[in-house]
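Regression test attached.
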Amino acid sequence: MSQDAWLTAEVAGPKKASLITKPEIADAMIRRAKRPIFVVGSIAAEIDLEEKKLIDYVIAMARRCNIQVVATGNTNNEFLKRGFTPEAVMPAVDIGNRLTDPKWQGVDGKGPHDLAIFVGLPYQMAWTILSGLKNFAPNLKTISLDNVYQPNARWSFSNISIKSWIMNLEGILGNRGD
Amino acid sequence: MGTKEINISIKEIETEIGNIRDLRFSVGRLAQETWDEPQGPTPFPSMSTLRNWDLTLLKRYKPFYLPFCDLCCLCTFGKCDLTGDKKGACGITMPGQQSRIVLLAACIGAATHTSHARELVTHLIEEFGADTRLDPGGLNIKVEAPITRLVCGMKPETLGDLETVLDYSEQQITSLLACTHTGQEGNPLDLESKVLHTGMIDHLSMEVADIAQVSAYDLPKADPNAPLVDIGFGSVDTTKPVILVIGHNVPPAVEIMDYMQDHELTGDIEVTGICCTGIDMTRYSPKAKIIGPISWQIRYIRSGIPDIIVVDEQCIRTDVLDEARLLKIPVIATSEKNCLGLPDRTGDPPEEIIDDLMSGKTDGALILNPEKVGVVAVRTVMQTATKRKKKKKIGILSLEEAIEEAKRCTQCRECRRACPNDLHISDAMKALSRDDPTMLAEIYDSCVGCIRCESACTQEIPIHSLIVAAGEDTLRNESFKLRAGRGAIQDIEIRQVGGPIVLGEIPGIVAFVGCANYPKGGNELAEMAIEFANRRFIVCTSGCAAMTIGMHRDEDGKSPYEVYSGNFEAGAIVNVGSCVSNAHISGAAVKIASIFARRNLRGNYAEIADYVYNRVGAVGVAWGAMSQKAASIAAGFWRLGIPVIVGPHGTKYRRMLLGRADHDEDWYVDDARTGEKVYVGPVPEHLFISVETKEEAMVMIAKLSMRPNDTSRGRALKLTHYIDLHRRLLGSMPTDIHLFVRMEADIPITMKEDIVSILKEKDWKETVIPDPTLIPKKEAAP
């Protein structure tokens, strides 16, 4: 497992994401978080994970782990089609910006988020937004759940196969139980 | 204005103080004042003159930094790690460094336009004389140079007057660039203020360039019915000798066309262009043809169709000579800014240069004289074309050849990992190796032509050529109509639409501009332009974006320019021209303040920007923004208070300027009538924002077109578009409607029931519509 950016030239700075080598790591972070939030981009509805789409895993995880969801791009449409209503619909950079504000009380106004989980954004957009959070949101933990290495997250998968990705996502869900 | 350079020389004179011999003196320029508008407070502003206005904007739209690099490597103290709250050896912080890089990018952009303008104006003065009158629109235009009037407080009348403007631009850019030196400006907001200043200078220089070329070359003069011209690969008659011109600075292309006309060769040769020279060539002669935006360079050169390539400046692939050499296409470089390593043949007789190009003794030549370029290019192409006929094959590779190449693919996926759009190239290669070109043909539509995939390929497969082979049918059918760039907006058009725009009854002006680094192909841009034209916005466009919109066909086979009016009016698609014509879009916003609202324009930047910001619902969209010029163009719009939306690649510009809709305290204006502070809601909510998808972009355009001054009727109309698009494209009612409804009359009647219930839920309270300004009275007073 390597810490090479998925797009070869997107080399990170000195501070790079730790690798999620097994689902328990992500699961533990989510368990520990008091106010986690999912930031879900438009590609989540395009990626096939065998018989499901990535967004279906997001919905399952959000429900099981009680994570609030922000839909960016036009992802809201896809959530609604699946009978799931996100807490907020806003541009990815807007939620990114708010997450750098320690006074922001979150999408529900009940307090700052302590964990942001990114998934399904265009690679370089996630890269840059996560860079903004790495540098300007020191109290926020970030995870990328895409199957490509996002060096600016606090934790990220390495560049893994679809099969391995599914196992990891299932693992996070499985570890939760119902 | 009319300016004169005074030179006095006295051989010998006897005076009371003595005998004086060989006295010479000169006075730079004397202004002959012909403009009776009183001078405003800020003619020729220095970097800090408009700082208060900038900081007012930046207080609302704070930078959200997205560091594209955590290090600074600009001096030998470095590299310095700036991650988090670390500082560099010079003391710079991460926010300071990001703003510094944004300023550098904007300086590069503004310097490029200014240098372009200088080269153009110098050439035109040599050719036509400094006293040549500026005439960007005949009797239809009295405010000939709105940005120049606004920024410099001068009214240029001749080509010579434009030199004064460029002197100022060059001085400012030099100082701005100096600010980025180590140990210079480090305060992020001061750096951002300088970014805005750079943008303003950029628009000034763009205006100079375009009104100079429109006046001297007699390009369409604010003509809404500028001719429809050909665009696309398929429009080229490949049986004729073909000249390709790439770049932005049109004099060499003009000389080519003049030489052809003088020698009755116009029908015998195809003159084709890529990028903005293509656009400006067709403004000069509708017989010229545009191939496409910047991303078409490699596919066109590799087709072998061009028999000679002439490059001027900007956005030209730096490996153009390598690509041309493979197909024995001679290259002529024409700009000191882009010599390509070629020998300088400017002083040689044309015959010698032509012989050397014909014999292959040299790959190309640097010729820094446009007239000579015309002679050499035309005479060379007439001779080379017959020899090169066998090399012309549109698809580059046959499909069979492409399949054989694809079989060499090892599926290492390095191509995909190099692709800026993460296109699934390796999967498509696998399919092609199994005789299925469908997937690769789909990639053709999204490919930006950067050929990074080829550089990354471990097997040296010419991947881009395979993509073109798979997309050959699409390529052959690329034959569309584009309305030639019309130039400025007429004063009478401004009078007609000024009221409806300021009152909000025309829902907005949306300008699709910028480069072709599209995330999912160009069709998305055309779809957006059509959507907003149908919604009765005024759609403006320029440069690569204008070309891309033209390369789209409706079910009747017509391009948007054949369907929509070219007038500056609701429901139109208005191509103003090339990159430098962008100044006519910002100029139109400025002219609304001047011509419609009769605000004093002269040297009065902050007041006019305040007017535009609060009243003119204009939005820029640079969906494929790539370049530093795009950065400076955007900055010029920001300083006028015009928001800009970029596509997902736009986060790589390193920072956004975002408003916080949830911070009520940010959205108060002064009511100029009463002096009271009035909450107006987050309008426009952001000044610079990158969005992810075309659907999100369309919703954002509608949202950012709202302004504090909208009448209730206007606001209801704008809300209708916002809500309708949000529902259709994002699937639900927006949750922030209450922030945009000021009084019940603002509520669109057809949506009243839904909205009233939302307002109740949000504990909404009615407010008033002020006479909005961000400049407190004491500051506005002279």
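Expected vs. actual: identical. Chain A touches chain B at residues 6-9, 12-15, 41-42, 72-74, 76-77, 79-81, 88-89, 91-94, 96-98, 100-101, 104, 121-125, 128-129, 131-132, 134-136, 138 (CB under 8 Å).
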